[in-house]
Amino acid sequence: MTEVSIDQFAGAQAAGAFVLDVREQFEYVQGHVPGATLVPLAEVPSQVSALPTDRPIFVICASGNRSRRAADFLVGGGLDARSVAGGTGGWISAGHPVVTGASPTEA
Predict the structure, then answer these.
(1) Does 78 have pLDDT greater than 90?
(2) Is residue 50 a part of any domain in this protein?
């Protein structure tokens, strides 16, 4: 599993990368990376077929712990998954934009 920095992720996100947020819905609606798709960690195994197989998946959570677990699982299943070190907290701390709302994008 590859782990990427917030700066590396910001470049990928700006270029239209697929972003998978594995936090819980209540966390997601409080603030998430623009364009992120919500699949809570516990639901990742049942949602694998909805994820892209033709490009990297950037997995993000609050701090990086859940995203590492999800990325490890996805890599084990043959997907190109990368965990975002520092998570959404690091994204916000670095001054990147967030979106709030009660209607998450789901896979």
Answers:
(1) yes
(2) yes
